[in-house]
């Protein structure tokens, strides 16, 4: 259990580090390229040792792949490492939860992208707008979907905690990135 909690946290933080190295140019790209295959190995290993984890992590890969989020050299490298390891090793999955979670990931990514492009049209003073922004910004559909498969008894509870840690670490790195961007603006102004 503790391995999965730590692994998911490292994977979430590592993914966002790579994202922000390439998209926001906050972190070192060379380090991101070095980290990517290591994350790929950790991701694949975490999938190989447990069918529940394999289902969740493959669903995340499918959702972000379909949404076009594997969009830089480092992410492609990590993805290829995962793919090669899985092709040669094989994994055990739960097929219906895989589809269910992959759709949730895809919809979360789509909702997040739509909100990013249309943030100006949302009014923070309106409760529904505020909830919608928060829901897709924090990717709650995926979390709720994992919670659902836990509550119906398909997955152990600690995988819900793992997905919370994955996303929490991802959001913590994003918060750090935004704070660095604010500092840069103040220093440059």
Question: Can I get a quick summary?
Answer:
By secondary structure, this protein is an all-alpha fold. The protein has helices spanning 2-22, 29-48, 51-66, 73-89, 95-117, 127-137, 140-151, 158-188.
What does it look like?
By secondary structure, the chain is mainly alpha-helical. The chain has one domain. Helix content is 80%, strand content 0%. The N and C termini lie far apart (48 Å).
Instruction: Tell me the total number of β-strands.
Output: 0
Helicity range: over 70%
User: Count of helices?
Assistant: 8
- Tally of individual domains: 1
The value of Rg in angstroms is 17 Å
Q: What composes the largest sheet?
A: none
Overview features:
8 helices, 80% helix, single chain, 189 residues, mainly alpha
Give me the secondary-structure topology.
Blueprint (H helix, E strand, L loop, with lengths): L1 H21 L6 H20 L2 H16 L6 H17 L5 H23 L9 H11 L2 H12 L6 H31 L1
